[in-house]
Amino acid sequence: MSCSMPDQKWSNIIAQLSELSPELLEALLHYFYNSCLPKDLAEETASGLMNVAKKMKLVKLVELCEEHIESTAVRSSKC
User: Fold this and answer.
1) Per residue in 19-29, pLDDT tens?
2) pTM value?
3) Helix axes 43-56, 59-77, angle to 10 degrees
4) How far apart are the C-alpha atoms of 21 and 65, rounded to whole Å?
């Protein structure tokens, strides 16, 4: 993780990860291993994940979450 988060200290990362809900941790690990969001990601989880990504300075993940939330809002507004 040090390559994707060079400004973060390992102790800070562990503290942040230990505070995550299981859903957020699973989504974050999915991103770390696959460089994408899980396909069944709920809007609420995407919002929480975006907040975590902002704290961890994961710019690409923030962008992915924003796109996911926007596309989810568009789909739900068509109903």
Assistant:
1) 999 999 999 99
2) 0.79
3) 160
4) 17
